[in-house]
Structure prediction request, 308 residues.
Amino acid sequence: MDPSALSIPTPVALAIIAVFGYMIGRGSKWKPVTDADQARRELKRAKAVAKELETIADAVRKNLATHSASISHFKDRVCELGTQQKDAAWQELCQEAEEMLKPTLRLAAQIAHAYDEIRQQSNHLMSFTEVRTDPLTRVSNRRALDETLDTMFSLLNRYDQRFSVAIFDIDHFKRLNDEHGHLYGDTALQSVAKEIDTNVRDTDVVARYGGEEFVVVMPHTGIEGACVFADRLRARIEANLSLTVSGGVAVATDGDNPQTVLSRADAALYSAKAAGRNRVFRHIGGDIEPVCPEVSELPAGDCVKVEG
Prediction:
């Protein structure tokens, strides 16, 4: 068809065709998150939550059954000794009562722990609702992230249950928006969110932190494991999408709160950006250091190798 027949100047028409060709070529790897994809992920997460709740309930049920048997035996002993006046027998009963008290206290602590874990899993379930979901990327929003971190710190403070966080930021995102438009940028955000959400564990929480940043909360994960995950994800995004990300990792420690652990991860992310982008740094107390991928552009000795 002759472009002039549509009253469009030929240079403009050619430019439009070129832009469409470029978008198809560059954007072919970026697949927006569909409702079906979201439903499958939420079903998978819901199954994982149900399994966790079942495990918690089963453990409490078994311990309650054992404890109930101990109490029944103790009651029988009390009735038996009620007809006796032997001091030695009553002394033995007192010792049995003291021994029974120990598992009672352990069971009470376990039930309290189970309650906290159930609350954590409930937060996972609530994160499926729209009020806790980012409308563009369909991962958790800032509200869901705040609730998750509050729960994780409760478990850390009560039971020393460690966890790590990683912050990822799309490299040169402003340039991408300026050069290709905001719709193109939105598609990039959706693709990165989907790539992260696909590669985390069912128990991890992925949230959009703001703008082009995403946070992953990893329960029961130390700094080494979090670094392995973060750098593998960075490499996967580079391989599968037409962009790169930088990452910062930190582990929650005693005396931390949501703001301090996120601040350390963010500082590590800033160092990764300053070092050239498309890499991961970690914050370990007073020091920030790069995490080496399997093949690193950094000179030997300038990064920390983590074992996968």
Observations:
- Residues 1-8, 10-28, 295-301 have pLDDT under 50 and may be disordered.
- Residues 32-126 form one domain.
- The radius of gyration is 27 Å.
